[in-house]
């Protein structure tokens, strides 16, 4: 079964003779826009099946993500290297948080053990 869009392509071009408004394939008469030169391809668009575009976008995504991570990492490390007071405050906060999590886990496990014994 053919779709309505491609059904007209199965007829011989002679069937369309006498129709002044028709142009393009399968007729030899070119349409108004066909005579102009092709515009340069749009960045991110490919003439193929789209796989090249997907690969290029994924590559750009990973490159951008890697550069963003490296930039953020070195900004953070640079701030810690330069600012002694900030570095000590950060690691004190980190140690306090670690201790808080440890206490919460121990209390939770203890309450589970008590509930199991009952």
Structure description:
Helices cover 59% and strands 0% of the residues. It is built from three helices and no strands. The chain has helices at 4-7, 51-82, 84-117. It is elongated.
Sheet having the most strands: none
Separation of termini?
73 Å
> Cα-atom Rg, whole angstroms?
34 Å
Q: How much of the residues is beta strand, in percent?
A: under 5%
| Contiguous helical run count | 3
Number of strands: 0
Query: Uncertain runs with pLDDT below 50, 5 residues or more?
Result: none
The helix content is 55-70%
Class by SSE composition:
mainly alpha
Order of helices and strands: HHH
Which word captures the global form? Answer: elongated
Mean pLDDT across residues: 81
In short:
With 118 residues, the chain is an all-alpha fold. The chain is 59% helix and 0% strand. The longest helix has 34 residues, at 84-117.
């Amino acid at each position: 079964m053919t779709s309505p869009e491609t059904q007209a392509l199965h007829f011989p071009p002679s069937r369309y003779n006498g129709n002044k408004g028709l142009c393009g394939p399968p007729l030899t008469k070119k349409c108004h826009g066909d005579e102009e030169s092709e515009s340069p391809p749009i960045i991110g668009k490919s003439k193929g099946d789209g796989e090249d575009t997907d690969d290029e976008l994924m590559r750009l995504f990973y490159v951008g993500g890697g550069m963003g991570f490296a930039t953020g990492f070195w900004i953070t490390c640079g701030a810690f290297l330069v600012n002694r007071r900030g570095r000590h405050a950060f690691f004190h906060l980190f140690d306090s948080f670690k201790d808080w999590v440890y206490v919460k886990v121990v209390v939770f496990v203890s309450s589970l053990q008590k509930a199991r014994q009952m």
